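Case study 2.
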Amino acid sequence: MAVSASSAINLSIKPSRTSLSWKTHLSSTSAFAVSPLSGHRQYPRFVIFAMGAKPKVLVAEKLGEAGVHLLKEFADVDCSYNLTPQELCSKISLCDALIVRSGTKVNREVFESSGGRLKVVGRAGVGIDNVDLAAATEHGCLVVNAPTANTIAAAEHGIALLTAMARNVAQADASVKAGKWLRNKYVGVSLVGKTLAVMGFGKVGSEVARRAKGLGMHVIAHDPYAPADRARAIGVELVSFDKAITSADFISLHMPLTPATNKVLNDETFAKMKKGVRIVNVARGGVIDEDALVRALDAGIVAQAALDVFTVEPPKDSKLVQHENVTATPHLGASTMEAQEGVAIEIAEAVVGALSGELAATAVNAPMVPAEVLSELKPFVALAEKLGRLAVQLVAGGSGVKSVKVTYGSARAPDDLDTRLLRAMITKGLIEPISSAFVNLVNADFTAKQRGLRITEEKCLLNGSPESPLEFIQVQISSVESMFASALSDSGEIRVEGRVKDGIPHLTKVGSFEVDVSLEGSIILCRQVDQPGMIGKVGSILSEGNVNVSFMSVGRVAPRKHAVMAIGVDDQPSKETLKRIGEIPAVEEFVYLKI
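Prediction:
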């Protein structure tokens, strides 16, 4: 018979008719290193803090008081503004979360300086071009933003610039204050009947379109990702990029700054526009080639521009800002009292939620899982991680985990089942117990690929009601040896399967044996000869060892044949207690697994 304990310690009994010998050794695999934390109970959370410990949050740019107050209820908050890059890097190793606006660059050096402690970066606003998302992902750091609170403020500012530009409000105001009265010089243009091209039909762009329609404008839009039915619902036609810029009397920019949109308005695109076009930008300064815009203004191709954002902020010695046909504001898109408080609260809630282990719907470097899907899958998230943890602990030392197959049983059509979150949690369960890596939804796929771990998924369509997203999850590890032979399927893979019952994850199959045990605490699996008194014998030994039993289930092939007993325990049995279980003559093998 053989007995083994997972993670840091393996206990084994060599079969002998006359004697019993023990050996204790550190487990190892060819693929991973053992983590000193592998024995701790884990949860499907991004970050876990010790009891009573408070995380530390660095707020590097001005944040509304309501948001700061919310943060202080949960964490130790350090509000340090106007930090140099060197000062930020020196502080970040002591912080669990960082909150910035658009003025702080969170680059690779920041993540490397954190030493792995930084787990959440909150961007108080929409744009995230000042955060190195690739570096954040590699370091397992979640990046969240506040995409909704300033939507209306940004849209209103866009409309304000549009109307002010059309009627020369800023220039006329400056003229009057200079003692002049130049009514003939500042004749404007009407908006009614003019074509507005909204470039980027997201939250802000669509709100600008609604308001422009109310001003009597004809609105078209370009956005390669926007659904046409949503545009049609507010009377907007989606068109190609070239059609948008060549048809428009006014162009309003609302796209993010990406490699594809960097300087998307340049000499070439300005040359395609109507002579006398007017441009509004409340998105990102980098989407316009500013030198090219100056040339287009001087040539009369662009009659006017109204700009709230610039490539470098604040701009210095800028010919563009000083141009007489440019209206400029200092990045005021989100600068209303209501929006400032809203953004502060939204980002504070996102950061606190992430630090508390909740899955943020506003994560920008993780799979975008809709809020309703997060809610529906919540109980299966815990099941997925725990099945991963169980499966990898069943791998015998020396076996490298390289190939894992996950099967989802569901009555829903495969296209209606979003498994990205579940895959990430299974990956977390597989890797964390046997490595020092920190795995979450952000870096799960990256971490698996880095370790040569191939995870394939299969969806099994079942008959029944599609009300529940899943009936079962099955995890198989192939081409490895098992420290509990009964966990092997008929085809030789380690196989565990589980279900959610009344909101609680349950282990329902080990190898080919049916069991039913709640995945709470830890588990002892025993293969035994099915005979009377076995439950009592094992239970008595655990009781004498002061180990509380939470659940017990027996799955068997047939009466009086082989059976597998699954025992849920709240306490870790001593080596002596485990040895006594192994000495029961009918017990052929067993394993103690920490969940």
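Residues 371-393 form the longest helix (23 residues).
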